[in-house]
Amino acid sequence: MSSEFHTLSKDGLWENNPALVQLLGLCPLLAVSGTITNALGLGIATLLVLVGSNITVSLVRNFVPNEIRIPVFVIVIATFVTLVELTMNAFTYGLYMALGIFIPLIVTNCAIIGRAEAYASKNNWYKAGFDGLMMGLGFAAVLVALGAMRELIGQGTLFDGAELLLGEWASSLRVQLIEFDYPLLIAILPPGAFIGLGFLIAGKNWLDARKREKLAKAPVEKAQRARVTHVS
Amino acid sequence: MSFYIASSPHHHQRRTTAKLMQLVLFAMLPGFLAQLYFFGWGVIFQLSLAIAVALAAESLCLIARDRAPASGLQDNTAIVTAALLAVSIPPLAPWWVIVIGTLFAIVVVKHLFGGVGHNIFNPAMAGYVLLLISFPVQMTAWMPPTGLASNAPGFIDSLYLFLFQFTNEGFSLEQVRRIDTGSMLDAVVMATPLDHVKTQLSQGATLSEALQHRQFTGFAGAGWQWVNFAYLLGGLLLLQQRVIQWHIPVAMLGALSICAILGSIFAPDLLPGLNIHLFSGATMFAAFFIATDPVSAATSSKGKLIYATLIGVLIYVIRSYGGYPDAVAFAVLLANLCVPVIDQYTRPVTYGHRKEES
Prior knowledge:
The complex is a heterodimer of chains A (232) and B (358). Chain A is 63% helix and 2% strand. Chain A has 232 residues and is mainly alpha-helical. Chain B is mainly alpha-helical and 358 residues long. Helix content of chain B is 60%, strand content 1%. Chain B has 17 helices and two strands. Chain B: Part of a membrane-bound complex that couples electron transfer with translocation of ions across the membrane.
């Protein structure tokens, strides 16, 4: 049992990461990862929707006819997105304005419907919920990493505008690490997102390759062989 | 005994890449000298720094990829990339601009895609676009051509501007770029011909009003026309030496000319004419030196015609309706993206075979 949860978390966070390996949900990933705050906001929203929709889909999986499962999934996901959207509108209005169309667009995030179809519709609710949590964390982690990279290169800060997400106290989180006279604007512009994601994927593949190399190099215990045939 | 077996083409001049690249560099010389004459010493500093950075980056990349740096450096492709980028950017842009551009061109655009012969984008133009959208102010600060600048910087002042963005006496680039209009109060910073025409047209002036500006001596803007002629000369040399084929320059200039002529027929006072399009910007440089890059261009003759026509049309459309005054880099990169498709559908039929019915 615990090994299954272990596999689920390993898959979601690394081996089958929705952003780095499955390359799903790239539209919001690329569009709103300009700063850590935006990335974190969208990451948390996606995480909440993913957990909610996975649990719900898993609970109704035995009552939904196979032929209309996709529309049902979409309605479930859209419901949760609406919940999250209204919540953000109420509590984090600045961030809600900053993310704009990309909150409703979580509905079309393929990572979510992909998990509903591939995992939640075949497993019980707590496993599906855990899977949603891990996939959501993996997605949010990549979003935040990309947001940090772009924010640092593009404006030299980290956590710029964190008060939009976390409340007034968070404005002290903002750190100016580098003072640019002329920041490398491309990092904040759309091309920077593609290039940055490319580097992240390359980095992950490089780490994996290094790990595999190490495994291959590790000495394999050879079984002692004794000759049992007769040599004439 | 062993036979030398190679794939077609079987009839070839055995010229190495290094030799071809030397010829390209040599053919750039007239244009380079024209730029040196009209825009001052800056272009020399840009070129030296670009080549130094390119060679260093190329060696490091080759070492990181477990290749022998010596063999890679000898093919001169890094130097050509550096030279193409160095002459594309404003001569007195700060030193870090060319460093960032060259590093991006060599490391990301060339070596991350697989090194010589594998890059899908033209490295110099990708580097240029990175710089243009990252540092719009520095990348549009061209000097007024010689004769118009009110206080053109000398060698030492140019070096100071290049390194510190201020001359020895403390003039900024903005001040140095002013042109003499009689009184100091009227001194204005001058835009490039294409930029000037675009700005004027967007402010509701007609083309003939825009061309009233005193930089439009001759037929396409002081300085710029001669730089273009010089690159045309170098390009003809490349053609004569058979470093490049006629397809790309002819198709690109042809497509651009047809568009420009049509534009002047239908909206003579709202769209710049043929002379402006051909001789005011980077057109000649692009037609002979950028679009003809053998790696990122289409392969077959028919493919080259399609590819270059696409560039010509894109240059016209972006110049006329886009946000930037010149469009060569964007057009070339967009056409580079189309090359795999073009190559797929223009594959020549091998001798003795029929064309497959598709």
